[in-house]
Amino acid sequence: MEKKEWVRLDNASNIVLAARNDIDTKVFRLSAEMTERVDPVLLQSALVSTYKAYPLFHNVLRRGVFWYYLEERSGTPRVKPETGPPCAPLYHYDKREFLFRVLYYKDRIHLEVFHALTDGTGALWFFEDLLSEYVRLRQAKSLESLDRPARREKADLEDSFKRYFSKKKTYAELEASIEPLKKYKEEELADDVDLLEQEPKKAAVYRIKGEKTPDHRQRVIEMSVPLKEALDLARGKEVSLTIYLTALYTLAVYQAKEDKSEEVTVTTSIPINLRQFFPSVSVRNFFSTTIVSYTFKPGQPDYLDDVCDKLTRQFKSQLQKKALEKRLKRFIQFEFNPLARITPRPIKDGVLKLVNVLNNKHITVAMSNLGRVQLPKGMEQYVKQTFFYTAAVRPQFCLLSYQDVLTISFTSPFVETDIHREFVRLLTERQVEVIMDVNKVTREEMEER
Amino acid sequence: MKRCPACQANVKGDWDTCPLCQTPLKVTQREEQEESDSPSVPLKFNRKKIKQVLSISSVLLIILYFVAHFIWRFQFFNLEYVLFGIMIMWLMMLVIIRKRRNIVKGIVYILILFSLVSLYFDYANGWMGWSLTFVIPILCISALLAMFISIQVVDLRAEDYVLYLQLAAIMGLIPAVFLLMDWVVFALPSLLSVVFSLVMSVAVFFRYRQALIYELEKRMHL
């Protein structure tokens, strides 16, 4: 019998698995709109060669007695035309399925990834390489082929949570091992304790309720806006784009709420890519999440400045090295706790599910900013626009920019679109040109025509 | 592209009213309608059918029981038996659905489930020992046989079944305890189960030792 390689699952993936359900499939999608119809044959060849370069993507998820694990599988993935709803489940227990899929529809290429395999960054690397290869093959036809892009420096199977946050490593060892990775460090974490602002204990966080879509599909609303206009708006308030749009969204949530007679606390969960603070080229999950909140008090005339200010302060204080390390070390310690180790997996799943339900009580909405798509020069004439969104258990929006277009994609398990209506109006009031594409989720909408 | 006058935004796709605020859309100067970039996907239907069939047959069984009583006017057995049968039907369906992707695993589950059910039933009806004498040993033997056959028939990889096969073989040794403690009325079924399981267990161990150790390492990692 041939031996199949296997690896332990990383810390974040265990939590992802516990939070997964029929509605929140924990599958996210990266899409590219090409300038012409997608050629499935070329896409398949591009997939095969990209797949070869990413050993992590060869893995399937299996259940052990105590833990889940990733196991290598043979065979090659196939591209398929898109026929179902977006972000459909990718993991079914006892089935050896790839944890990602590549789809195409008209002029679009989609990559859908199960979050236990990797995070947005890892998936974006794969996606960029897939697109580059596709365009390279496409151009081979016209004899002015691009060169193969330089090989990405990456460590497919490295568990960076363990590298940085396990107790066993001494500081010197750690320093030595990350020396060659230093160049990937983008930002220094704040280190002054003054910023740590103790938030008053939130009484009750507003949780959005609505009518669930009939077959659990996500309501998807893609908005395309000029990147420059969005950046200018954020700069006008002297905050980052992430914070600015989160503030607008927070405000939209409040405006869409009918009963405003009492105080309303709206919180947003924001994932943080840890690679920028703890240099790593791991393709696997390496992220953490933070929550920012704002409490609306009735009768205030204009909220936006105040929201921007409060969210920025909270975000900064949570990005402190000490706070972040403490949080992550706690998670890792739980994983290495002897009692936790010998608890059978179904019980661990149950406990984590419960923890997840309790955590969700503190979250109103979520957002995720994946930054910019970087493609080799000369690809602009083939790739028009990119999109990023994820299946969500609560209304969420995701950001991705490419060239001069920012796409803000909203997903929600609910039919209602009132928050999105408020959001788009907040944007257009500020003279931002918006194009939106909304999917149909109810029978009435489908029969309208 | 169409435009919503209230939201001041352009809308892709074949909407007549704004998908966000239901205001009728205006067609802008540029006549061509920008197609939506996602396919229209018809609604999927839920897998409610199995539940429906099971519920209806459960109710029918209960009605049948009362009708039979009404016609023949003497008591065959209590309603408990019918309810119990219905419960087993549901459990069985659940196991089959949950374990449909690995038949050998499903057999192990059914073996355990039915052994427990028979133990309980024997106990509940004044202990006569038929569960230990007949049901459990025979279940063990048939489970091993069923596994053996399904491995030949269904395309399964060794790594998928060795552990379950070994587990079932070890469970088949349990009737040895019944024999030693003298809990059984007839020794033959238990004896058969023990011998059969022993042979199977040893055979599996020698044939698939490497796979067994590797699978154990992988699945039991702490």
Offer a concise description of the structure.
The complex is a heterodimer of chains A (449) and B (222). Chain A is an alpha+beta fold.
Task: Give the key terms.
heterodimer; A: 449 residues; alpha+beta; Chloramphenicol Acetyltransferase; seven-stranded mixed sheet; five-stranded mixed sheet; globular; B: 222 residues; mainly alpha; 3 domains; three-stranded antiparallel sheet; 8 helices
Count of discrete domains of chain B: 3
Q: State mean pLDDT of chain B (0 to 100 scale).
A: 85
Major β-sheet annotation of chain B: 3 strands, antiparallel
**Helical content band of chain A:** 25-40%
**Given the C-alpha coordinates, what overall shape of chain B results?**
flat
Can you tell me about this structure?
The complex is a heterodimer of chains A (449) and B (222). Chain A folds into 2 domains: 6-140, Chloramphenicol acetyltransferase-like domain (Chloramphenicol Acetyltransferase, 2-Layer Sandwich); 199-382 and 392-447, Chloramphenicol Acetyltransferase (2-Layer Sandwich). Chain A is an alpha+beta fold and 449 residues long. Chain A contains 13 helices and 15 strands. In chain A, helix 2 crosses helix 3 (120-140), helix 6 crosses helix 7 (241-256) and helix 7 packs across helix 8 (304-318). Chain B is mostly helical and 222 residues long. Chain B folds into 3 domains: 1-38, no CATH class; 49-98; 116-222. Helices cover 64% and strands 4% of the residues of chain B. Chain B contains 8 helices and 3 strands. Chain B has helices at residues 49-72, 79-98, 103-124, 130-153, 158-171, 175-180, 188-207, 209-219; strands at residues 2-4, 9-11, 26-27. In chain B, strands 2-1-3 form a 3-stranded antiparallel beta sheet, with no helix packed on it. In chain B, strand 1 and strand 2 form a beta hairpin. The model of chain B has no long low-confidence stretch (mean pLDDT 85). Classes of the chains: A alpha+beta (449), B mainly alpha (222). The interface between A and B is large, with 57 and 45 residues. Strand 15 (435-438) of chain A pairs parallel with strand 2 of chain B, so a sheet runs across the interface.
